[in-house]
């Protein structure tokens, strides 16, 4: 096929932003504090947009900023259509949205459908009495004759998934914390209200949502007990000791996703990204049978894969093969719930990992701080904030290590706050944005160069994926668009290795390589190379 520049331009120009762009996740408590209370806020985010423009991302997704008692740091919402005062006001939100749009960026919010806070007025009513009109907005069941919960389900944060309500003498379902009662989406009024929440924010100009814990949205609580997971190990946490056959990925849940999509389709150019952990088979179902589900069901495979070339090659091929016809892929390297990539893969692999994320086929999501190569922080016992770590201590489930404040500059509070940060700072020397901006070889400058290249080379965005080879810890693949072939070589090892590739070197993670190097015959330890032919 011959390469036609004009065709290519048309193709790229008409491709949706959520296919061509990069999503950047902001954990708002830890991005930038503007008022000295030690907690990040909306005005803080607005003051840091230049960083995102310099980086070259297209969209920002902000974890929940709605009113919340903060038991789960915002994933416990007490009012879906307002802004938590810690983060600012609706006016601050509008100002942020305008500032984001003025820079040509998109703004995504976090929609948390599966549960509210127990402080939400709906739940307050629901628990007021058994005959309250909102009783069935949540999921209530009688105790078994011996007083125990209606089934054996374990909550995601450990302990029973049922909470006893003394006043009305029933259990309610709480899939995460007890203070996060599960909403009953099978109730038509709940459905209507929650879909209206999407409309509220779409009307206010948001460009889309990341939809939280969507696989839990329609549990079939009368289905019975969950069977034990035969391959469970303690480090997986108590919830994974069962297979959630009735709790997760239920038929009704897919129908609900479709309805969310119908709401979003009524607005131009919006996107829905779903958070659904599971095997590829489950994840693919969230695209919808006629691609009428999520635009992008998050692909978390890189979060779980052992960090070696062969595993990753295999997983990439499996994912590519599992994608339904016409579905657009995506890749996630980190988020606010999982150990950072620099800790999972080792700091030396940070640039290899970034290259993988930004050159595989599909929309990449970057988690704040990963562009600096940050690793997990050590959180002293008395500084622990995460409720999961508090409920299931000591086995590494805690998420505080990946939620520490963004280091912007050298100094005691790293430019994040003038007060005392809500979590200890983790800013190893030279890890901050200002220092890395001035350091030619930094992980940050490598991200910037890589993203510039992604923007300049349509093959890296819309080109086909093809494995070339995977041996000796070196993974080589191509992205192909028309006559354009870009070859990506990743060395997962700490040793120099021979490579057999053709083309002109256009990017190396080692800045000491010059343009004069031509086609390299070897790849250095922990090196990432991109060639073009
Ligand atoms: C997934 C979110 O990413 C996590 O942070 C939260 O605790 C749970 N869902 C519950 O909403």
List the helices and strands and how they pair.
Blueprint (H helix, E strand, L loop, with lengths): L4 H9 L3 H4 L2 E4 L15 H5 L2 H7 L3 E4 L27 H13 L3 E6 L9 H6 L13 E2 L20 E4 L4 E4 L14 H16 L4 E4 L39 H15 L5 E4 L5 H6 L10 E2 L3 H4 L4 H14 L7 E3 L8 H4 L5 H10 L3 E5 L19 H5 L41 H5 L5 H14 L2 H4 L1 E8 L2 E8 L2 E8 L5 E2 L5 E5 L13 E2 L4 E5 L1
Bound molecules: 1-deoxynojirimycin (NOJ).
Kindly list the characteristics that best describe this protein.
Oligo-1,6-glucosidase, domain 2, 3 domains, binds 1-deoxynojirimycin, disordered N terminus, alpha/beta, TIM Barrel
Characterize the biggest β-sheet: 8 strands, parallel
CATH class of the largest domain: Alpha Beta
- Structurally, how many domains make up the residues? 3
Oligomer state equals: single chain
What is the residue-mean pLDDT, rounded to a whole number? Answer: 96
Question: Which small molecules are bound?
Answer: 1-deoxynojirimycin
Would you kindly provide a written description of the structure presented here, covering whatever features stand out?
The protein has 533 residues and is of the alpha/beta class. The protein folds into 3 domains: 17-114 and 188-448, Glycosidases (TIM Barrel); 121-173, Oligo-1,6-glucosidase, Domain 2 (Oligo-1,6-glucosidase, domain 2, Alpha-Beta Complex), CATH 3.90.400; 464-532, Golgi alpha-mannosidase II (Immunoglobulin-like). The chain is built from 17 helices and 18 strands. The strands form 4 sheets. Strands 9-8-7-3-2-1-11-10 form an 8-stranded parallel beta sheet. A 5-stranded antiparallel beta sheet has the order 12-13-14-18-16. Helix 8 (251-265) links the parallel strand 7 and strand 8. Helix 13 packs parallel to helix 16 (443-456). The two termini are 15 Å apart. It binds 1-deoxynojirimycin. 1-deoxynojirimycin binds next to loops.
